[in-house]
Write a structure and sequence with these properties.
Rossmann fold; 6-stranded parallel β-sheet; alpha/beta; binds nicotinamide-adenine-dinucleotide; Dihydrodipicolinate Reductase, domain 2
Length: about 350
């Protein structure tokens, strides 16, 4: 079978997509786009790609390109995704889907009109530690969830983005949406769509950035499950997403940067004859784009719905945005009215 041809917009995180399309037996990267001409030429030469442009519209006009990865800075996602979907391409968009609900709505609408597939790349769902934790939770091993927590701890001093877009005061990028979306999406995946949030934020670590650099949000999930997400982009520590899932019959401690997860459950403790955590080895892959791409390609080839569709991406953005609003207003924020903005679009 002929390989599907892939194009990539944005060549930093996008390079992981390029590599994943190269490794996937069903795809072949053929076209790239980046506004940085020097980088564009360098990548084209290194990967011996037939086609490159600084204008994404030219990439989208290539008939042979069937899948497009949108890995440009967050505030271009709407423009690039809507244009790619309108051009009939299957689209894999980097997280977060967008920074505003209006942009999410536009992407949901374009995805609904298109016959092509759309996926939001919430890559934490492919992190081996988290996918194993989810499997264990779904098996009932730790009973009924009552508290879930996750965090996104990163030092952005080393990652302002090309041209410093992550700290641009003219286009403030809320870290809780941009990075915190990983932890919020993980909890949504495990505990469902939050119904309410209350949050606090502060700004102590990155005084020269135009946004609060830390935020902590409490969430109420369906089924009376409590949740907490902490996000810091100025902490002094290596990157991680430390997470804990508490159930009535056990507890899982997991992250995306350690070679093991920990499980304590009634069943395990009885079997082992001790009250302790079992250590379960996993491969470490905080950015498992290879599996993310493999899943998307599989959905396309088998004509299956994509679990992480535009609505899923929008719900994660809405859940993050609600916490940002709560922190700034000092009051609880209900999620349903925010979900309505794009669910109406879907109806
Ligand atoms: N999944 C993850 O864990 C993860 C990690 C990092 C970044 N991201 C996401 O990936 C996206 C890109 O982030 P990054 O860290 O690679 O940023 P970056 O700034 O390091 O790289 C972005 C690249 O896009 C290019 N670019 C900018 N505007 C463009 C345009 N209009 N058209 C084409 N190219 C353009 C830049 O020249 C640059 O090479 C963001 O949405 C970010 O949130 C996701």
């Amino acid at each position: 079978m002929e390989k599907m041809k892939a194009g990539i917009i944005g060549l930093h995180m996008g390079l992981a997509h390029l590599e994943a399309y190269l490794k996937n037996p069903h795809t072949q990267p053929v076209a790239i786009c980046d506004i940085n001409e020097e980088l564009l030429k360098e990548v084209q030469k290194k990967y011996e790609l037939p086609w490159a442009s600084t204008d994404y519209r030219e990439l989208l006009s290539r008939k042979e390109v069937q899948i497009v990865s949108v890995a440009s800075p967050d505030f271009y996602h709407k423009e690039h995704c809507v244009a790619a979907l309108s051009a009939g391409k299957h689209v894999l968009c980097e997280k977060p889907l967008a920074l505003t609900l209006e942009d999410c709505q536009a992407i949901v609408s374009a995805a609904r009109k298109s016959t092509a597939s759309f996926m939001i790349g919430q890559v934490a769902r492919f992190s081996p530690g988290f996918s194993l934790a989810k499997k264990i939770i779904d098996s009932g091993e730790i009973g009924e969830l009552f508290f879930v927590e996750s965090e996104y701890a990163h030092d952005y001093r080393v990652a302002p983005g090309a041209g410093g877009w992550r700290k641009d005061p003219k286009r403030p990028r809320e870290p809780f949406i941009g990075g915190g979306c990983h932890a919020v999406d993980l909890l949504r995946w495990i505990a469902g769509d939050p119904v309410e949030t209350f949050a606090y934020a502060n700004h102590k670590c990155l005084p020269d950035w135009p946004v609060n650099d830390a935020l902590i949000a409490l969430y109420k999930f369906p089924g009376d499950i409590m949740g907490k997400v902490f996000c810091s982009i100025g902490c002094r520590r290596p990157y991680t997403m430390r997470s804990v899932f508490y159930g009535t019959r056990g507890t899982i401690i997991a992250d995306n940067t350690s070679p093991a997860i920990k499980l304590s459950s009634l069943r395990y403790c009885q079997q082992a004859g001790l009250y302790d955590f079992a250590t379960i080895p996993v491969t470490t892959a905080s950015h498992n784009v290879e599996q993310e791409v493999a899943y998307f390609v599989d959905c396309i080839l088998n004509n299956q719905p994509v679990a992480m569709d535009a609505i899923e991406g929008s719900k994660t953005v809405a859940s993050c945005l609600a916490a940002v609003i709560s922190a700034s207003k000092g009051e609880k924020v209900a999620l349903q009215p925010l979900y309505q903005t794009f669910l109406q679009e879907e109806a």
